[in-house]
Amino acid sequence: MTATIIDGKAFAAKVRGQVAEQVARLKADHGLIPGLAVVLVGADPASEVYVRSKGKMTVEVGMNSFEHKLAADTSEADLLALIDKLNNDPQVNGILVQLPLPDHLNEDLVINSIAPQKDVDGFHISNVGLLGTGQKSMVPCTPLGCLMMLRAHHGSLSGLDAVVIGRSNIVGKPMAQLLLGDSCTVTVAHSRTRDLPAVVRRADIVVAAVGRAQMVPGDWIKPGATVIDVGINRIEKDGGGTRLVGDVDYDSCAAVAGAITPVPGGVGPMTIACLLANTLTATCRDNNIPETTGLTV
Ligand code: NAD
């Protein structure tokens, strides 16, 4: 069997197109332009690349992008004061603080100071609690993107066995909540899981979010299963240089799976598309305008 490739790049372009259409409608019908504020503390090169591409895509879908670059030694009080200002700025519908933060800043405190309705990353404890109790919330972008692709591929996920490998607050746990919400039977595996291969072999859906290059081989995959690879790992290439790979061994898994997301070009592009979708959703909720179905849960 050769797996269907789930093209996250094309899917993300479609989602951004839908967001752009809705942004144009908000402007025409309500005179509203959604605004996304991104706060970057320090000059981590990878974070700078993310922030730049987020800003570019925000503008491309017709939203306002507000970038706040702060020095690495910014005090917690100054950062909290900026967030407070953004919380109270009607031009700003979404706020994202780029993680990781420098060590002297308390990440939990900072994230929980964002107004929950503007927390487009979905990391505020209120949003985590709302998602966990099946209520409307801001949903973390990466698992939201995974869910959108799974729904598009399967239609209904009801009754399917799903195994999420990884239990991080950013990916694994919210992914498990979303799959439960769609009536999957969910197992969350992690570094202490006994006999991981046997656990993964039960799954109709495997979501790998570990951060270990190519750790899931094809012989762990049930024939016909859907494999969503969240991992982004840089490894040495045979002939020199580096390349990006996921948490699953693509070639051996694609030979057994029914469908699989590639790395790059799978989950990654969906994350920013979902950030834009969340900013649109936040703007609609803030103004009592019906939300666009399919762009949120
Ligand atoms: P994390 O380090 O916070 O969590 C990793 C999880 O993997 C932990 O819960 C741990 O228990 C589990 N784990 C570690 N070793 C394991 C093992 N041997 N067997 C089973 N489980 C094991 O990582 P994260 O933030 O969830 O990110 C995971 C991966 O996803 C990383 O490669 C990251 O770069 C990538 N990521 C991609 C996107 C995207 O947009 N595509 C977004 C976020 C994260």
Automatic annotation (TrEMBL):
One of its GO terms (cellular component) is cytosol. It catalyses: (6R)-5,10-methylene-5,6,7,8-tetrahydrofolate + NADP(+) = (6R)-5,10-methenyltetrahydrofolate + NADPH; (6R)-5,10-methenyltetrahydrofolate + H2O = (6R)-10-formyltetrahydrofolate + H(+). One of its GO terms (molecular function) is methylenetetrahydrofolate dehydrogenase (NADP+) activity. Pathway: One-carbon metabolism; tetrahydrofolate interconversion. Residues 6-121 form the Tetrahydrofolate dehydrogenase/cyclohydrolase catalytic domain. The keyword Membrane does not apply. Its EC number is 1.5.1.5, 3.5.4.9. Keywords: Amino-acid biosynthesis, Histidine biosynthesis, Hydrolase, Methionine biosynthesis, Multifunctional enzyme, NADP, One-carbon metabolism, Oxidoreductase, Purine biosynthesis. It comes from the Bacteria. InterPro entries: Aminoacid_DH-like_N_sf (IPR046346), NAD(P)-bd_dom_sf (IPR036291), THF_DH/CycHdrlase (IPR000672), THF_DH/CycHdrlase_cat_dom (IPR020630), THF_DH/CycHdrlase_CS (IPR020867), THF_DH/CycHdrlase_NAD-bd_dom (IPR020631). GO terms for biological process: L-histidine biosynthetic process; methionine biosynthetic process; purine nucleotide biosynthetic process; tetrahydrofolate interconversion. Residues 140-285 form the Tetrahydrofolate dehydrogenase/cyclohydrolase NAD(P)-binding domain. NADP(+) binds at G166, R167, S168, I232. Homodimer. Catalyzes the oxidation of 5,10-methylenetetrahydrofolate to 5,10-methenyltetrahydrofolate and then the hydrolysis of 5,10-methenyltetrahydrofolate to 10-formyltetrahydrofolate. HAMAP family: THF_DHG_CYH (MF_01576). Belongs to the tetrahydrofolate dehydrogenase/cyclohydrolase family. This is Bifunctional protein FolD. It comes from Sedimentitalea nanhaiensis. The lineage of its organism: Bacteria, Pseudomonadati, Pseudomonadota, Alphaproteobacteria, Rhodobacterales.
